[in-house]
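Give me C-alpha cells for this 80-residue protein.
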Amino acid sequence: MWMHWAGQAVERRGVAVSEPGGRRAMSPAASDHGGAGASAAGGPDEPPPVLGRWSRLYALVAFELVAIILALYWLTRRFD
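Here you go.
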C-alpha cells in the first residue's frame, strides 16, 4: 500500500487505496470500466434483445428446451 507522507490515500494504477476501514473513492478510470457505478442493464446504448424484452427471450428458451425434451422423448418411444 502506498501512502502519502500525511497518511492520505494515494491512487495507484486506477485503483483507490486507503487505510483499512477507511472510505474508498472510485477513480474515473475504474468507473468507466464497469466499476460499482455501472448499471446492471448495460446502459442506454445496449440494443434490446431479439424479441424486444428479456422475459420474452427467456420464455422462448424455456419453450425450446421443453420442445427438445418432448421430441427426444417421442423419438425414444417411437424407435424403442
